[in-house]
Design brief:
The chain is an alpha/beta fold. The protein has 14 helices and eleven strands. The protein folds into two domains: 230 residues, Alpha-Beta Barrel (TIM Barrel); 68 residues, no CATH class. The two termini are 20 Å apart.
Length: 316
């Protein structure tokens, strides 16, 4: 296909972006997706600055293709992460969980392409005003941290497309070429996919977590912790404790104490399926096997093209 806006922006072959997921997207997954023609992202949210540096350097050694780094702006030592990104010459940065105005000018001043993740139209407009190069519009079906508004991908994408002129990357509930085609029909220029790439050999997620994804059914995930930072989790012992606390009106302080430290690491990286925080999207119910990232990229893109052709034939 002719290179679209996002392919030109990132100099990639396929408009498929792998989400920068904490504890799941290190250099191995990132380089695998980039080598397959998509855009891989290192998830820096679970990394100390020097760990991030190591992942960037290993990714450079593993691929000659473009890749980027996702940076949650709520990270306490954000300045140190950005320093590493600048020193290592990273060319693409996706920011999330914060105000895009905080870092966009600085990043663009370093010649970096900037994308920000949003969950509502009003935030997309602010991103365009802040000067970002593109936005990821993420519906609440998505895994991990999410918007309080609970706007679905199908509702969000066309509204964001109508409200801004910069490229729109759709995210949330996308794990197949059919879903990718639907996102393009809604006005997206590319898709960002997280959950499907967790269930790969290259993902740094624990094997227990990967296998939990394979047996997940409809309704097994739910958005919770809305008083703190909303996050979609697989229902387990930890989720039930949080849910019960919220039902009885627990304070923000009590919820923060219950969350404690390193819950996500315990679940996704260390494989504790009872006490850990298991972040994954609703589309996990459709994921039934672990397969290489390159195979996933090719399958999704091929199905996407076939779907577009089949839709074209309907109108002829």
């Amino acid at each position: 296909m002719t290179k679209n806006t996002i392919c030109r922006l990132f100099n990639i072959e396929k408009p498929i972006i792998q989400a920068g997921m904490i504890w799941c997207s290190g250099w191995e997954l990132t380089s695998a997706v980039s080598n397959a023609g998509g855009l891989g992202l290192i998830g820096s949210g679970s990394m100390y600055p020097e760990v991030l540096r190591t992942h960037i350097q290993k990714c450079k050694a593993a691929t000659s293709k473009p890749f980027g780094v996702n940076v949650p702006l709520l990270y306490p030592n954000i300045e140190e992460l950005m320093k590493v990104i600048f020193e290592e010459g990273v060319k693409i940065v996706f920011t999330s969980a914060g105000n895009p105005k905080t870092w966009t000018n600085t990043l663009k001043g370093k010649g970096i392409t900037v994308v920000h993740v949003v969950s509502a139209v009003k935030f997309a407009i602010k991103c365009e005003e802040a000067g970002v190069d593109a936005v990821v519009a993420e519906g609440f079906e998505a895994g991990g941290h999410n918007g309080r508004e609970e706007i679905t991908t199908m509702v969000l994408i066309p509204q964001v497309r109508k409200a801004i002129k910069i490229p729109v990357i759709a995210a949330g509930g996308i794990a197949s070429g059919i879903q990718m085609a639907a996102a393009f029909a809604l006005g997206a220029d590319a898709v960002q996919i997280g959950s499907r790439f967790v269930a790969t050999p290259e993902s740094s997620a624990h094997q227990n977590f990967k296998e939990a994804i394979l047996i997940a059914k409809e309704g097994d995930t739910q958005l919770t912790l809305k008083q703190l930072t909303p996050v979609r989790l697989i229902k387990n012992k930890f989720f039930n404790e949080v849910n019960e606390a919220e039902k009885r009106g627990a304070s923000v302080e009590e919820l923060a104490q219950l969350l404690g430290r390193a819950r996500a690491k315990k679940g996704m990286f260390e494989g504790d399926l009872n006490e850990g925080e298991l972040e994954i999207g609703q589309v996990s119910a459709a994921i039934k096997e672990i397969k290489p990232a390159a195979e996933i990229v090719e399958e999704i893109f091929t199905e996407f093209k076939v779907t577009l052709l089949s839709l074209t034939s309907i109108t002829n």
